[in-house]
Design brief:
Number of strands: 0
Number of helices: 9
Largest sheet: none
Structural class: mainly alpha
Order of helices and strands: HHHHHHHHH
Helix content: over 70%
Length: about 160
């Protein structure tokens, strides 16, 4: 199995396979929703990320040992989405969502036994990215300002 071999199946067939698999796999369904939201633009992506983070934050039940790794994978996937596609299109939204992700740490640790350190590692990676958030916003603002200046220069003032 390779990406090239899967490409031979065509987009329609792969979409059908993914939909069938997503019906029984909530994690895959969430991943697909994020991918679709990212394709539509940062506003929808930010909303999907925030929705999932808030759902995790509202949860109160104990996270059993066999659910810690899947939760860590999901949080890490959200962290990558925030630090990647969302940051590339909307740095301010990325900063907001990264802060929200980090605010979940206490709740998640209180509800779990992270003896393996997998959850801790996700939050460590997220706090490293948070240290870069000021640079993200600054770069985004500079890019936006340059774009505005270019559009104003080409418009004659009468």
């Amino acid at each position: 199995m390779s990406a090239e071999a899967l490409e031979q199946l065509g987009a329609a067939w792969l979409a059908e396979l993914l939909m069938a698999q997503a019906k029984g796999d909530a994690a895959l369904a969430r991943t697909l929703r994020l991918a679709l939201a990212g394709a539509d633009g940062s506003g929808r992506l930010a909303a999907q990320v925030e929705k999932r983070l808030r759902t995790i934050g509202r949860s109160r039940g104990f996270i059993e040992w066999d659910k810690v790794r899947p939760l860590a994978r999901e949080l890490d996937s959200l962290r990558e989405t925030i630090g990647g596609p969302l940051a590339a299109t909307d740095a301010r939204a990325a900063v907001t969502q990264m802060r929200l992700l980090l605010s979940l740490a206490e709740n998640v640790f209180d509800r779990s036994d992270d003896g393996s350190g997998t959850l801790g590692e996700v939050f460590r990676k997220a706090s490293y990215l948070r240290g870069q958030e000021a640079e993200l916003v600054r770069t985004s603002l500079i890019t936006q300002n340059k774009s505005l200046m270019r559009s104003n220069v080409s418009t004659p003032i009468i």
